[in-house]
Specification:
The protein is α/β, with parallel strands linked by helices. It has 7 helices and 8 strands, in the order E-H-E-E-H-E-E-H-E-H-E-H-H-E-H. The chain is 42% helix and 21% strand. The N and C termini lie close together (7 Å). The structure holds guanosine-5'-monophosphate (5GP). Guanosine-5'-monophosphate is lined by residues 12, 16-17, 35, 39, 70, 72, 74, 79-81, 99-101, 103-104.
Length: 182
């Protein structure tokens, strides 16, 4: 595997979290950054695994200390990538993977132009809407907001180096792992 920073992004509901969860379980040798967020944990999430769950005040302090490589607000909550673990990986010649939204992917590209941006695409817009509703963890208003954001994000595919279509999670993970190796 070549040592570089890879950013997996794409619209909400496309399954980035599921793909990265599967990748963490089946390819534990691949280092994945753990983001910070002010969103409350979902039932199946554990602090320190999927995210570090922070208060607004804690998050604001990290921003002020410039401790985040990138950060963004998304559907009313804040998300960011702790800078120093990623920097240590890259400085040590070791690969790193981030799973972040489009705003974050653009910030990483500006700061680290050699980063590889991978777009996780839904098989279709109808399928994306179905998945957003089926998740059932968010209110209709949040689903509506996320779908609107997702439509705008689909248009950004041209800014990316590679596209992986998420028709099946194991296949998408294998394609991502293959990309990480070149
Ligand atoms: P969720 O709340 O469903 O876990 O994530 C919502 C969105 O936030 C997803 O699009 C996810 O990729 C994005 N996200 C997760 N972590 C980060 C991060 O550290 N930075 C940015 N910019 N987006 C993130």
């Amino acid at each position: 595997m070549t040592a570089r920073l890879t950013v997996l992004s794409g619209p909400s509901g496309v399954g980035k979290g599921t793909v990265v969860g599967y990748l963490r379980r089946h390819h534990p040798q691949i280092w994945v950054s753990t983001s910070v967020t002010t969103r409350p944990p979902r039932a199946e999430e554990t602090d320190g695994i999927e995210y570090h769950f922070l208060s607004e005040r804690q998050f604001t302090r990290l921003v002020a200390e410039e401790a985040l490589l990138e950060h963004a607000s998304y559907a009313g909550h804040r998300y960011g990538t702790p800078r120093s673990p990623v920097q240590h990986r890259v400085a040590g010649g070791l690969p790193a993977l981030l799973e972040i939204d489009l705003q974050g992917a653009r910030q990483v590209r500006e700061q680290m132009p050699s980063a590889r941006l991978v777009f996780l695409a839904p098989p279709s817009l109808a399928e994306l809407e179905r998945r957003l509703v089926a998740r059932g963890t968010e209110s209709p208003e949040v689903v509506r907001q996320r779908l609107q954001t997702a439509k705008e994000e689909l248009a950004a595919v041209g800014e990316f180096d590679d596209v992986v279509v998420n028709s099946s999670v194991p296949e998408a993970v294998e394609r991502l792992v293959a990309l990480l190796a070149v």
